[in-house]
DNA sequence: CTAGGGTTAG
């Protein structure tokens, strides 16, 4: 091993340590450094190797990071290498979760004689980012103003921080003052504009910027995705020349999956796997794809996706687990869903709601209530989806009183406005238990225009309880809302048939023929006749 | 050679 002071930068130890760090093997990088140090191979350890080691420390499990950071901090001090810009920056990055720690590191590293004013620039940029992440804009601004040297990264961080905090005017003002701009500068403003609902202005800047990076495209695509503008997102995606970017595919697949275009989501997924594209999916891709399978109820494809996932060695993170919980509960495999749910590293309102909805769908009332209470005990507030699950559990069990109480407390206690879905469940439950008038009243009280399916739930109840008069009224509402849907005609026909009103059945069939509606194969129409 | 701008679940 060479141990002359000039060679140690490119010594085999340094190369091995940096290689391990680059390959994402943090424990190996750290172990290699420790053995190089103990063996005395490097009388003066290489600062670049130390920077790589500190970077590796940041990839260790969170609880071990603080202790490791402190001991390497002391180690650097002892070696007289703390003020070296590279290990210093790596250490600053390690401390950047905690702005106080990052600040004290910089305070204890005073500007030494002969050191260039920019030598700790990267560390200061880290502290700046840390302050901005913690939301301390005044402190960030103060640091920015007193920095001896600022580069484009400092400016970008400041602009991004202001923009994300909604200080768009200040962000743009600063953006205009920048001595030099790169794609990230534009992206920072665009991202802020999108976050605060100025999608059109964001698009204008996007079209105006001189050079767009992939991040620019992806930021715009996901902006349109969140606004529900699938067309605009797809248009941009097709315009992208460099589609060799997993983030772009993930953004487009998520866009479709989140906006109810499950088939298109799977189409894009298939496209990214084609040999001429061949971008390997990750756990984020699979979260969206699993959600799409679940929306389609396509369990066969879902299972294929899962085996593909296993063959790629994809780890199940909490998002992916939650998507799988949803898929499995929809296919009635509630036990597998529960196993996945139990394996979550952290339960939140989304995962709880997925499991509660799954229990509701599968008639597991006690489990649904248990999960709801457990969630409350954990101080996680329920949301609209949690109540969809709970209400459908009560619906399944036919418990009218409990459902009514639940429906009421949703708005009074939890301040959640009932959606169409909640109303549909209540109408279905009230109707099935013979409270047809109450169900009708509830629909009339709805603050939104009832969809055909809400009336349809009540029409089904009219069929169950052979109520011709109300059935006719409800059916006309269904025809109004969904003129092309023959199912409601068939349902009304069944109501007439069960009351032996055959002339009305005949007239209805004639109307259907006139309106070019055919009866569905396998309907009970034939039996009724 | 670091630091800043991007993708996931009900």
Catalogue the unreliable spans.
1-5, 521-529
Q: What is the strand tally?
A: 0
Over the alpha carbons, how many angstroms does the gyration radius reach? 31 Å
Coarse morphology:
elongated
Strand and helix map with partners:
Elements: H1 12-22, H2 26-38, H3 47-57, H4 62-79, H5 85-94, H6 99-107, H7 121-133, H8 137-146, H9 152-164, H10 168-177, H11 183-195, H12 199-208, H13 214-227, H14 230-239, H15 246-258, H16 262-273, H17 283-296, H18 299-311, H19 318-330, H20 334-342, H21 349-361, H22 365-377, H23 384-397, H24 400-412, H25 420-432, H26 436-445, H27 452-464, H28 468-481, H29 487-498, H30 502-514, H31 525-528
Helix pairs in contact: 1-2, 1-3, 2-3, 3-5, 5-7, 6-7, 7-8, 7-9, 8-9, 9-10, 9-11, 10-11, 11-12, 11-13, 12-13, 13-14, 13-15, 14-15, 15-16, 15-17, 16-17, 17-18, 17-19, 19-20, 19-21, 20-21, 21-22, 21-23, 22-23, 23-24, 23-25, 24-25, 25-26, 25-27, 26-27, 27-28, 27-29, 28-29, 29-30
The chain binds one DNA strand of 10 nucleotides through α3, α5, α7, α9 and α11.
What does this molecule look like?
The chain has 529 residues and is mostly helical. The chain has a domain at 438-529. It has 31 helices and no strands. It has helices at residues 12-22, 26-38, 47-57, 62-79, 85-94, 99-107, 121-133, 137-146, 152-164, 168-177, 183-195, 199-208, 214-227, 230-239, 246-258, 262-273, 283-296, 299-311, 318-330, 334-342, 349-361, 365-377, 384-397, 400-412, 420-432, 436-445, 452-464, 468-481, 487-498, 502-514, 525-528. Helix 9 packs parallel to helix 11, helix 13 (214-227) runs parallel beside helix 15 and helix 15 packs antiparallel against helix 16. It starts with 11 loop residues before the first helix and ends with a helix. The protein binds one DNA strand of 10 nucleotides through helix 3, helix 5, helix 7, helix 9 and helix 11.
């Amino acid at each position: 091993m060479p141990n002359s002071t000039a060679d140690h930068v490119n010594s085999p130890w340094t190369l091995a340590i940096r290689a391990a760090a680059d390959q994402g093997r943090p424990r190996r990088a750290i172990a290699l450094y420790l053995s190089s140090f103990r063996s005395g191979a490097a009388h003066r350890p290489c600062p670049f190797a130390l920077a790589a080691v500190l970077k590796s420390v940041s990839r260790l499990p969170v609880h071990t990071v603080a202790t490791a950071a402190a001991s390497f901090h002391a180690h650097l001090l002892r070696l007289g290498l703390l003020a070296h810009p590279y290990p210093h920056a790596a250490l600053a990055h390690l401390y950047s979760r905690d702005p106080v720690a990052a600040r004290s590191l910089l305070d204890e590293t005073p500007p030494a004689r002969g050191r260039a004013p920019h030598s700790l620039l990267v560390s200061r940029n880290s502290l700046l980012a840390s302050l901005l992440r913690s939301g301390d804009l005044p402190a960030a601004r103060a640091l920015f103003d007193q920095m001896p040297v600022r580069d484009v990264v400092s400016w970008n961080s400041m602009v991004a921080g202001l923009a994300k905090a909604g200080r768009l005017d200040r962000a743009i003002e600063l953006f205009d003052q920048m001595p030099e701009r790169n794609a990230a500068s534009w992206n920072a403003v665009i991202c802020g504009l999108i976050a605060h609902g100025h999608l059109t202005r964001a698009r204008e800047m996007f079209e105006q910027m001189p050079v767009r990076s992939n991040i620019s495209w992806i930021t715009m695509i996901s902006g349109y995705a969140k606004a529900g503008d699938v067309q605009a997102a797809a248009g941009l995606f097709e315009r992208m020349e460099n589609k060799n970017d997993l983030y772009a595919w993930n953004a487009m697949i998520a866009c479709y999956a989140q906006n109810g275009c499950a088939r298109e989501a799977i189409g894009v997924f298939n496209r990214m796997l084609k040999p001429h594209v061949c971008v390997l999916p990750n756990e984020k891709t699979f979260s969206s794809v699993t959600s799409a399978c679940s929306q389609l109820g396509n369990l066969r494809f879902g299972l294929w996706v899962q085996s593909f996932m296993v063959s790629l060695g994809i780890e199940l993170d909490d998002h992916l687990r939650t998507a799988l919980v949803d898929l499995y509960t929809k296919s009635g495999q509630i036990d597998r869903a529960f196993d996945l749910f139990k394996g979550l590293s952290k339960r939140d309102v989304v995962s709880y709601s997925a499991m509660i909805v799954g229990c509701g769908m599968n008639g597991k009332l006690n489990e649904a209530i248990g999960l709801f209470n457990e969630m409350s005990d954990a101080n996680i507030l329920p949301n609209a989806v949690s109540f969809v699950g709970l209400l459908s559990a009560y619906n399944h069990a036919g418990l009218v009183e409990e459902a009514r109480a639940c429906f009421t407390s949703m708005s009074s206690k939890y301040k959640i406005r009932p959606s169409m879905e909640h109303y549909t469940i209540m109408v279905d439950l009230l109707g099935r238990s013979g409270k047809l008038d109450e169900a009708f009243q509830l629909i009339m009280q709805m603050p939104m225009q009832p969809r055909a399916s809400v009336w349809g739930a009540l029409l089904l109840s009219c069929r169950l309880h052979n109520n011709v008069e109300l059935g006719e009224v409800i059916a006309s509402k269904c025809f109004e809302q969904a003129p092309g849907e023959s199912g409601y005609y068939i349902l009304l026909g069944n109501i007439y048939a069960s009351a032996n009103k055959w002339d009305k059945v005949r007239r209805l069939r004639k109307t259907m023929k006139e309106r070019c509606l055919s009866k569905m194969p396998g309907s009970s129409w034939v039996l009724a006749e």
